[in-house]
Amino acid sequence: MGALVINTNMNEHQCTTHGGYLKFKNDPNQSCPYCEKNENSMKTTPFFKKQNTFSNAFTTVELGCSEHGFKSAQVPTSVVDKIQNTCPKCSSSDEALNTAKKLLIDKELAKANVPMNTRSMSYDLMDKSSSPKQHVICETLVEDIKQLIHVRTAKNYRNLFITGNMGTGKTLLASVFLKNIIVRSVFTLTNDPNDVVFENNLRCFFTTESQLIQDIKDTWKDGSQTTTKRIFKKLSSVPILCIDDVGSIESSTHLFEAYTAIIDERYKRNLPTIMTSNVSHADLGKVIGSRSADRFLESDRALVINCDWQGYRQRKPVQVI
Fold it and tell me: How distant, in Å, are the alpha carbons of 123, 134, 165 from that of 126?
């Protein structure tokens, strides 16, 4: 700064920041005018106001758990209710656990051959406007699912025969049943994603009558890697088996033999079989053989679900151009 010209009516001062300055002797405020100017300027700047608002938008919370310990953290006030009393480490492990469960569920759904177009469905999402019976049927199947999950074994569970016209939702009812069993059979006893397991006693498998006969025919080819004996063993031993569209293929000796081998063995093992068909239960013997039908429909070991409402696919006329 330049040299100060001293007036006899003024006092000379020194500021450690701004150097020398003069103040009138009768001025009660002898502070540095440059410091006061800067301080007042900061108090009125938008930045200073934002800083105050910003600091007030944060709240101190305790995060953690007894396993991982607790620590204080500054978090936005707007999210306090969501994260108060939570543990970041547990949250990350929960996410990993859920991912591991989903991967195993998807794997088991694929192994069970559950139709892709039914895997996102549930009994709650099904259209039940065609008949009051649909609510009763879904409630019955849900209770059966709960019971199976509770006992954790399919042994001694009853057979299901779902019959009705085309397009009444028979396949969907059966598929959602299998899906629910699979989803609820994935569990873990710890928070470690590596400990996620599947309840093998409730393993499921879905096939169709046309696929069954095709698998049998494939064994006749040169170089076939399997045999009918292996096919029958697999379908006879899986805890819960579903055969879709029974009676859709013309009856043959090979088909009768397949049903006889599979149903008879499952009957001996007390394992449940689910069938869907356009054929009534009274005529089931005509398509799978009287011996197999007699075992499958044994009193107190079978439930017949009659889907006697109009099919969904033809409720609206087909568009014709």
Answer: 5, 9, 17
In angstroms, rounded to a whole number, what is the distance separating the alpha carbons of residues 15 and 110? 81
Phi first, then psi: what are they for 145, rounded to 5°? -60, -45
Q: What is the DSSP letter of 31?
A: S
Please give the C-alpha separations between residue 183 and each of 68, 110, 173, 287, in angstroms, as whole numbers.
30, 12, 16, 33
What CA–CA distances, in Å, run from 80 to 51, 59, 62? 20, 7, 10
pLDDT tens, position by position, 250-306:
888 889 999 999 999 999 999 999 999 999 999 999 999 999 999 999 988 999 999
Considering the entire predicted model, what is its pTM?
A: 0.70
Question: Strand locations in 232-291, DSSP E?
Answer: 240-246, 273-277
For the record, the structure tokens of 298 come out as 């044994």
Rounded distance between C-alpha atoms, residue 123 and residue 72, angstroms: 45
Contact between 241 and 274 (Cβ < 8 Å): yes
Contacts 24+ apart (CB under 8 A), 103-111: 104/186, 104/196, 104/197, 104/198, 105/182, 105/183, 105/186, 108/182, 108/185, 108/186, 108/198, 108/203, 109/179, 109/182
| Residue among 158, 165, 154, 171 at smallest CA distance from 210 | 171
Q: What is the mean pLDDT of the chain?
A: 84
pLDDT tens-digit map of 204-263: 999 999 999 999 999 999 889 899 999 999 999 999 999 999 999 988 888 999 999 999
Tens-place pLDDT, residues 125-176: 999 999 999 999 999 999 999 999 999 999 999 999 999 999 999 999 999 9
Whose CA is closest to 231, among 201, 199, 202, 265? 265
CA atoms within 13 A on the CB side of 217: 8
